[in-house]
Design a protein that fits this description.
Serine Threonine Protein Phosphatase 5, Tetratricopeptide repeat; two-stranded antiparallel ribbon; about 0% strand; 2 strands; elongated
C-alpha cells in the first residue's frame, strides 16, 4: 500500500492533538471520580456526624472532595458549623487545610469568624496559612469580633494591615461591625488608622456610619497622630527616632 507524504504528514501532525485530547479526557474522568462522593459523606458533613464521616473515609472517600455549592469538604464543614468534622478533616495529613472555595474562603477564615477555638487551634496546628493574598483570617476574625482569635493571629505574625482586593483592612472590618474591643486592640498593636479602601473609607468613616461617633472622633485623632509620626503609604516619614 502506497502512503502519500501528505497523508503521513497529516497523521504525524495530528498525533500531538490526539495525545492532548486523550490527556484532557483522562483528567476530566479522574476529576469527576474524585468529586463523586457518596451522599452519606456530604450528609455527615452537613450534620456534624463524625462516625459516618470516618466510615466514609475508611471506604475511600476523598477528604479534599469539593461540594458543588460550598467548595472543599473542610470549608463546607466550617460553613455548616460542623466543627467536629472540621477537626477530623484537619487531623488528616491528606487534607489540604488551605483549600479555598470559589468565593476564595478557606476553613481558617470561616472558623475565625465563627469563633470555634478548638477548630481554630486544630487548623493552626496543621499549618494553615495565617497570611494569604486578598482577604485573610484576620479580616474574618476582626469582622466577627473574635478578640481572642485576633490576638492569636497577631501572635502568629498575621499582617495587621493586610489589604483585601478592595484595600479594606482588618481594622476597617472591625470598625464596620462595631467590634470595638477588636478596634482598640488593633490600634494598640500598631494598625494604621489612616488607610483608606477603594471606596475612600477609613476606619473612622466606618465607625461614623455605624453610629459610634465618639469612637470615630477618637479614631480620627489616632490617624492624625499616626500620619504625623510615620507619614502615609504614599509619603512615608522615617526618622532615626522612630
Amino acid at each position: 500500500m502506497i502512503v502519500s507524504l501528505r497523508s503521513l504528514s497529516n497523521a504525524v501532525s495530528l498525533a500531538p492533538v490526539l495525545r492532548a485530547s486523550l490527556a484532557l479526557v483522562l483528567v476530566l474522568f479522574l476529576s469527576q471520580a474524585v468529586q463523586a462522593q457518596s451522599p452519606a459523606f456530604w450528609r455527615a458533613i452537613e450534620t456534624n456526624d463524625i462516625n459516618t464521616l470516618r466510615t466514609e473515609l475508611m471506604r475511600g472517600a476523598n477528604p479534599n472532595a469539593r461540594h458543588p455549592d460550598h467548595g472543599p469538604a473542610i470549608v463546607a464543614a466550617a460553613r455548616f458549623k460542623a466543627f467536629d468534622v472540621v477537626r477530623v478533616l484537619a487531623s488528616l495529613n491528606a487534607t489540604d487545610v488551605d483549600a479555598a472555595s470559589v468565593a476564595d474562603e478557606n476553613a481558617l477564615m470561616l472558623v475565625s469568624t465563627l469563633g470555634d477555638r478548638r477548630s481554630f487551634d486544630a487548623l493552626l496546628q496543621r499549618g494553615a496559612q495565617v497570611n494569604r493574598p486578598g482577604w485573610t483570617p484576620l479580616h474574618y476574625a476582626a469582622s466577627g469580633g473574635q478578640l481572642e482569635l485576633v490576638k492569636v493571629l497577631i501572635e502568629q505574625h498575621a499582617f495587621i494591615d493586610a489589604q483585601s482586593p478592595n484595600n479594606t483592612t482588618p481594622l476597617m472590618m472591625a470598625a464596620r461591625m462595631r467590634a470595638l474591643p477588636v478596634v482598640q486592640y488593633l490600634i494598640d498593636q500598631g494598625a494604621d488608622p489612616s488607610l483608606r479602601n477603594q471606596a475612600g473609607l477609613d476606619a473612622a468613616a466606618y465607625l461614623e456610619r455605624s453610629g459610634e461617633r465618639q469612637w470615630a472622633i477618637w479614631m480620627k485623632e489616632r490617624a492624625q497622630r499616626y500620619v504625623a509620626r510615620y507619614g502615609t503609604v504614599e509619603q512615608p516619614r522615617w526618622t532615626a527616632t522612630d
